[in-house]
Amino acid sequence: MTYHLHLTDTAGQEEYRGLWSAANTRDADAFLLVYDITSHDSLVALDYFNDLIEMESEERSPAKPPQIKFVAGNKVDLAHDRQVASAEGLNWARDHGCGFMETSARNMVNIEETFALIVRRVVAARRGQAAPPTRQANVPTSGLQNYPTTIEDNEKGQASDANGKKKKGFFSKLSCCTIM
């Protein structure tokens, strides 16, 4: 089975808030809300988008599966500039019924894993077996030692195992998903 992901990246910018209309949110199966761990204001800004999702979900047909919400704290590669503790991001996600992950787009930390988890939860919800929100943060507990720290460390940005061997990405193993 092939799954198609339609991603709308508003970057939280005011001029793109019109994309968050009923036409674009009511039929969505999932939402990925991203904040910057180096900006506490970006976490606070998630409240606005979460409120929009909640308002639109009230109008959603009860015959449709519940919408999946996931929060990603991005830029863990800039941990030295961190303003939002992992626990604070996790607590925000729990309080709003969201899954949680910390990521680094620059170093490709937990990027594929985040999308793979969202796809699995959407599939489960469609099957009527929705998984509950994540209760533990899926973040490296002792820094980024298992991940490349710079793009030069790993040209493709893939995680490496303890022996330095590149790990295959989730989607490359499955061949079930297409990101559009």
Instruction: Examine the secondary-structure arrangement and name the CATH architecture.
Output: 3-Layer(aba) Sandwich
Number of helices: 5
List the domain count as a whole number. Answer: 1
**What is CATH's topology name?**
Rossmann fold
| Helix and strand pattern | EHEHEHEHHE
Q: Please state how the strands of the largest beta sheet are arranged side by side.
A: 2-3-4
Number of E strands: 5
Mean pLDDT reading = 74
Give the overall shape, derived from the CA principal axes: globular
Poorly predicted segments: 134-162, 170-180
Biggest sheet overview:
3 strands, parallel
User: Which percent bin holds the helix content?
Assistant: 25-40%
CATH class: Alpha Beta
Secondary-structure content class: alpha/beta
Distance between the termini: 15 Å
Strand content: 5-15%
CATH superfamily: P-loop containing nucleotide triphosphate hydrolases
- Radius of gyration, CA atoms, in whole angstroms: 17 Å
Please provide a written account of the structure.
GO terms for molecular function: GTP binding; GTPase activity. Keywords: GTP-binding, Nucleotide-binding. The chain is of the alpha/beta class and 180 residues long. It has a single domain (10-136), classed as P-loop containing nucleotide triphosphate hydrolases (Rossmann fold, 3-Layer(aba) Sandwich), CATH 3.40.50.300. The chain is 31% helix and 13% strand. It contains 5 helices and 5 strands; from the N terminus they run βαβαβαβααβ. It has helices at residues 22-25, 40-59, 86-95, 111-126, 170-174, and strands spanning 3-5, 30-36, 68-74, 99-102, 177-179. The strands form 2 sheets. A 3-stranded parallel β-sheet has the order 2-3-4, with helices on both faces. It has a two-stranded parallel ribbon with strand order 1-5. The longest helix is centred in the first third of the chain and has 20 residues, at 40-59. It is globular. It starts with a strand and ends with a strand.
